[in-house]
Write a structure and sequence with these properties.
Elements lengths: L1 E8 L2 H7 L4 E4 L11 E8 L6 E14 L5 H11 L3 H7 L2 E16 L13 E4 L1 H11 L1
Parallel strand pairs: 1-3
Antiparallel strand pairs: 1-6, 2-5, 3-4, 4-5
Length: 139
């Protein structure tokens, strides 16, 4: 099991947890082997964010998106990622991370609970111990 802490701003964090946002856009992606099981722990960042870990979801696929995607791919990505065409075009090239099965934590968990002092710029791996602490918070 691979666990990743993912920094996400509002309103995207809320859209992931509601199931509306099915693709997250990132400039890079973890190196995964076929069959790896990946849990993304969502840290809500930003000026209006909770600034805590608010939930989790499964990472089911990553794929590269080139600077000039075919028109159908562009629209599909905009819809799945809940972004405008301008936002997407300005962010290309990038990776799409397919997310599923969101679960909201009963209360936001401060980073200090898992021994961190600041959130990742984009994402970082968590240890099994850190993930176990967060799993206990779901109960």
């Amino acid at each position: 099991m691979i666990n990743i802490l993912l920094s996400v701003r509002r309103p995207f964090s809320e859209k992931i947890l509601s199931g509306e946002k099915k693709w997250e856009l990132r400039k890079n992606a973890p190196r995964l082997n076929k069959g790896d099981s990946v849990t993304l722990w969502l840290y809500e960042s930003g000026q209006y964010g909770t600034r805590g870990i608010i939930g989790k979801c499964r990472l089911v696929v990553t794929a590269g998106l080139r600077p000039y995607p075919p028109k159908g791919i562009l629209e599909w990505t905009m819809n799945q990622a809940c972004v405008t065409e301008e936002h997407l075009r300005n962010y290309l090239p990038c990776y799409v991370w397919g997310v599923q099965d969101p679960v909201k934590l009963p209360a936001a968990v401060p980073l200090s609970v898992i021994g961190l002092t600041r959130p990742p710029q984009s994402w970082q791996y968590l240890t099994d111990e850190q993930a176990a602490i967060l799993e206990r918070r779901l109960a």
